[in-house]
Amino acid sequence: MLEGYRIEGRRAAEIAASVEGAVGSGELEPGQLLPPMRELAVELGVNANTVASAYRILRERGVIETSGRRGSRVRSKPATTGREYVRMDVPEGVRDVANGNPDPALLPSLAKAFAAAGEQGDRAPVLYGDALVEPELARIARAELDAEGVPDGPLTVASGSLDAIERVLAAHLKPGDTVAVEDPGWGSLLDLVPALGLRTAPMGVDDEGPLPDDVRRALAAGARALIVTDRAQNPTGAAVTATRARALRAVLREHPEILLVEDDHGHGIVDLPLHPLAGVTRHWAFVRSVAKAYGPDLRLAVLTGDTTTVDRVSGRHRLGPGWVSRITQRVVVRLWADDALDPRAVAAAYGSRRDLLIDALAERGVEAHGRSGLNVWIPVPDETGAVARLLHAGWAVAPGARFRMSAPPGIRITVSTLTPEETVPLADEVARALDPNPTRNYV
Fold first, then answer.
1. Whose CA is closest to 112, among 384, 335, 285?
2. What is the DSSP string of 179-221?
3. Which of 43, 83, 93, 293 has its CA 20 to 30 A from that of 12?
4. Which of 198, 202, 99 is nearest to 408 (CA)?
5. Residue 291 — φ and ψ, nearest 5°?
6. pTM, to two decimals
7. Residue 144, Cβ neighbours under 10 Å: how many?
8. CA-CA distance, 398 to 98, in Å (whole number)?
9. What does the alpha-carbon distance between residue 51 and residue 255 come to, in Å, rounded to a whole number?
């Protein structure tokens, strides 16, 4: 079962460390099945409860997952595995439309902003004990949030959306608690939640956001937190509409004790209005990243929320990294002040690329989704087959398994760098990949 690797240890911690070390080194690969607990207990000469405790430790650390009678296996993206073990390699000569990155040509230049921030730092160096948040960044961010209807609250910063969400969850939840998440949804988030020792409750998503009935079921079943992507949902491109927001707020009023986390990472690249849900529950957090609009390496997200939540996040942040670099914060302030980005033009560019592909697919009888953001989501009957056929045809797309739990199969195509000349050939190949009669002529 383990192809030669021998798990060792007499105590639960030792057994867990043996598995975790092998996963980290690559000796145990993502998806690999582990021995049944009783079988491993006999092999190691220990009590079955000891192995059960070891497996529980590994689940709480996000290394393995357990599926009842199907047993325990290494997670597809275990918390201890380096990215080189789980990334998708794109062969030479194959067009990569799987990566989820923004178009580098639409990102603003950072050179002047960093030079200005460096000069400011020379004049007034940031020292230990200084404020966590650049005052001008807080002022500009708060003004934008106020204008878009996000409730008033204290503000802090984190190193990107996922960092902010992790800190918020850790501030309120304990291992074993359940978090309601979108399905299909952001793959990194679906990996993060179990890595924190939390359970996931999937919620279906359509073009207007999470389905209210699914949210209601998840919360009624005991979910302690709910995470919603407001716009540019990954992978479907969903954006919460005014009508859907009213329905979701009605559900949240029935559960005022839950933690609501909203992710608006699409700010700056979408032209659809924001319809925030915050203000209904006692504890809430609203996260806004600059990565998609200004560059993934600008690891900064603005976080606002209720006083307790922001205070806990800020306090814990001080005990760890301390703060997000004020130089980075000043770079973002400079980019905002200089209008280095035209959000309408960026949103229009991405929107045009999405619409061209969706329309071309529709002409070929292929259903596709993408109201906002960088991606188009295509339901497929056979995910593995579709990905393989498209790769053979010269297109690397992202398999939907990265983004879903119980949702039907699909594939994700990132349109951020897709040219008009590429759209028709790609649509043709997608149609062929899904067609039971692949010899049909789509030209």
1. 335
2. EEEEES--HHHHHHHHHTT-EEEEEEEETTEE-HHHHHHHHHT
3. 83
4. 202
5. -65, -45
6. 0.85
7. 15
8. 5
9. 38
